[in-house]
Amino acid sequence: MKTLLRLLLTLSLVAPVLARAQAANSEEEEAGDVSEVDKDRLGPLRERVPPVSGHLFLKKGRFEFSPSATVSLRDAFFTKYLFGGTLTYHPMETLGVSLRVGYAVNSVAGAAQICTFSDGTDGGTRGCSSPSMKELDGKAPGQLKLLGGVDVQWAPIYGKLSLLAEKFVHFDLYGVVGASVVQYRGPELDPTLALTAPAKNYMTPGGNVGVGLRFFFNRWVTLRTEVRDLIYVEKSGNPDKENYLRNQLLFELGVSFFFPSSNPES
Fold first, then answer.
1. How far apart are CA 228 and CA 146, in angstroms?
2. Among 52, 57, 196, 77, which residue's Cα sits nearest to residue 130?
3. Of 24, 168, 192, 265, which one's alpha carbon is 20 to 30 angstroms from that of 114?
């Protein structure tokens, strides 16, 4: 009997302690025992940076008109500034077909030099100076006038860049390959008239390959940059010399406008 009384007394003392411990554990689970994922979901960073998913910008079934300016890189004789535009239709999200045209303004490159040699009576000294446009007109290779072509774009990469952990810039990276028509200025091809006839304009086929990048401002305006290698052949005008195979690097910067001006949510 005494043993039973002691057991009941012990239980009456321990029961309130166990009840308080169980209540504390329940409050801790409700208030503080959350997973790391839940902490991220409920934390202040979640409130400042909303989740970003899907494509902000869709191109399928839309036209892209892009006025642009282009400058030549690493040219020995002429620095070319091309002004023109591109019209692209996107039958698929990753595929586009473009028509391109540009007009070139040429200036003498800073690296160009004309050197004169003596007749040997004074030790063969020589002098070099920067040429004028008149001295190079039609005589040096690389003097572009007009440029047109048809291109195919393939854009397999769509991504997002985080700016200061609060804003995202959407972009896509694409490759481009196409056929070109090049008008350039060169010498008279008739040897009997080469010394007296003025320079002429010639047309020649060519090709180009390059990579480009679009940064999306909103659902219908983008900033576009491209680097291309334009490949074509110029006639030398001298039967004793081979024709010139030209590899001209071009850097292009343009702004694209997409039509229709809106696209559905992805």
1. 16
2. 77
3. 192
Q: What is the pLDDT of residue 190?
A: 76
SS3 assignment, position 47: helix
Q: Identify whether the C-beta of residue 60 lies closer than 8 Å to the C-beta of residue 89.
A: no
Of 149, 147, 148, 153, which Cα lies nearest the Cα of 224?
A: 153
The burial of 242, by beta-carbon neighbours within 10 Å (0-12 exposed, 13-18 middle, 19 or more buried), is given as exposed
What are the DSSP E strand ranges found in the chain? 62-73, 78-92, 95-108, 114-117, 126-129, 144-163, 167-186, 200-216, 221-234, 244-259
Cα torsion through 171, 173, 177, 183, rounded to 10: 50
Q: What is the pLDDT of residues 162-212, one digit of tens each?
A: 777 677 888 999 999 999 999 999 888 877 776 677 888 999 999 999 999
DSSP letters of 123-146? SS-EEEEPPPHHHHTTTSS--EEE
Whether 125 and 172 have beta carbons less than 8 Å apart is answered as: no
Q: What is the DSSP letter of 27?
A: H
Element at 31 (helix H, strand E): helix 2-31
Structural domains present in the chain: 2-48 (no CATH), 62-110+140-259 (2.40.160.20)
What confidence tier does 266 reach under pLDDT thresholds 50, 70, 90?
very low
Strand partners, 251: 71, 227
